[in-house]
Amino acid sequence: MQFAFTVMFHYLFPIATMGLAPFVAWYTYKAAGGRDEEAQRAARFWMKIFAINFAAGVVTGIPMEFQFGTNWAAFAARTGAVVGQPLALEGVYAFFLESVFLGVLFYGRRFVGARLHALSAVLVCLGAWLSGYFIVCTDAWMQHPVGYTIVPDGRIGLTNLGAVLLSRFALWQVAHVLTGALISGGFIVAGVGAYYLLAHRNEALGRRFVRDGTIVGLLFSLIAIFPTGDGNGADVTRWQPAKLAAMEGLFTSQAGAPLAIIGMPDVKQQRLVDPIYVPRLLSYLAYGNWKANVRGIDAYPSALRPPIELTYYAYHIMVGLGTIFVAVCALGGVLLVSGKLYGARPVLWALMLLMPFPYIANEAGWIVTEVGRQPWIVYGVMRTSAAASATVPAGEALFTLLGFAGMYFVLGVLVLHLMLREIGKGPVSAP
Fold first, then answer.
1. Looking at beta carbons, which pairs linking 163-169 to residues 24 or more positions away fall under 8 Å?
2. What's the CA gap between 79 and 158, in Å, rounded?
3. How does residue 429 score in pLDDT terms, banded at 50, 70 and 90?
4. CA distance 94 to 100
5. Which of 21, 150, 231, 251 would be a feasible disulfide site paired with 172, CB 3.0-4.6 Å?
6. If you write DSSP's letter for every residue of 299-348 in order, what string do you get?
7. Sign for the pseudo-dihedral over CA of 407, 410, 416, 421
8. Rounded-to-integer distance, Cα 56 and Cα 425, Å
């Protein structure tokens, strides 16, 4: 629970940095010629929002590095030869790249040319995405271990780093994570622009933000469904079928399995309560065959079943919110083409109020990913129950969890205050 709290709180900030970095790079590039004053103001504004999230992400990310040793010593000792590699690459290459060029982006404008300044924004974006890539590759190896061997003393040795970094499972998972971050970035930019239009201030930039955010939000909401969501789903179907059964609330193996749109899983009765089904659709989505047999939860021993309710509800929250994102952005796109979006107050309100919900969808997706793979910490190789530090009492973990909650509450309030203050000030002309 402690690690779940710290990692979920931390991930709020990489969502924003990975999602906003392309906007910072784009506006900085547009401003490089010196003729687009609007783009200069937009770049400076989003740089500040990006930097606040970057700083908070660093502060909240560091404790998790120590938790590998304090809370998960058995896991670190047995798998360190594998998971240590992408984590080290993230620190040495991605984090340093992002940090150094963020300094150039903020403080180097007077000392470097416009082109190098614009390049620094691109490299900050690359660093943010590379950081996410290496971290997600680590998790993807835990989901689908490849490129390893079991050495005589029981530890897991690395045999092929390329297999870890370039496995199909890792590439689809990275693509889906970046897609989710870009959806968040699109809704943040569109939502702030909608606020300015509704408040009748900074309207020229408000229109630009709404346009750019809506286009990005629509494009990546569709990509989240296909191909990245479809690719992830195919991998789960192939290598983690018990997770698939829990995600879909499929308690009984069936040929021509239906897809549950809604319903409440009753684990004791082994059924969905008040479901609405689309007949045979799950079989088709999973195997491309309307009559294919899909293994249900009953196909697995109880000791190998993931927590069904949490996996099921988190998955349906993610999918439900994704459907809403597509609908709102598609409506916004139609209004944008017809020239009516900037005056459509109900859609502007929707864009503004939806800003927090991509965060919820991203967190729900990670709950599906991590809770759905239980009881394994390394799927099929090492159980979570064997990974914890044997000498750390539960009371210590609870005490420090309360401490983290208190400190992170203060940090969260501070971050919100700083971001809302910058949004309230708005894009300014002075550097």
1. 164/82, 164/85, 164/86, 164/137, 165/86, 165/134, 165/137, 167/140, 167/141, 168/235, 169/140, 169/143, 169/144, 169/235, 169/239
2. 9
3. low
4. 10
5. 231
6. GS-GGG---HHHHHHHHHHHHHHHHHHHHHHHHHHHHHHHT-GGG-HHHH
7. negative
8. 21
For residue 131, give both structure tokens: 């950081």
Residues counted in the chain: 431
Instruction: Compute the distance between CA of residue 365 and CA of residue 292 in angstroms, rounded to an integer.
Output: 26
Residue listed under structure tokens 């996410």: 132
Q: How far apart, in whole angstroms, are the C-alpha atoms of residue 80 and residue 395? A: 26
Rounded (10°) CA dihedral 327, 330, 336, 341: 0
Q: What is the domain partition of the chain in residue ranges?
A: 21-166+393-431, 177-259+288-383
Before 375, cis peptide (omega within 30)?
yes
Encode pLDDT of 362-406 as tens digits. 999 999 999 999 999 999 999 999 999 988 888 998 999 999 999
The DSSP secondary-structure symbol of 159 reads: S
- 424 backbone φψ class: left, alpha, beta (φ>0; ψ -120 to 50): alpha
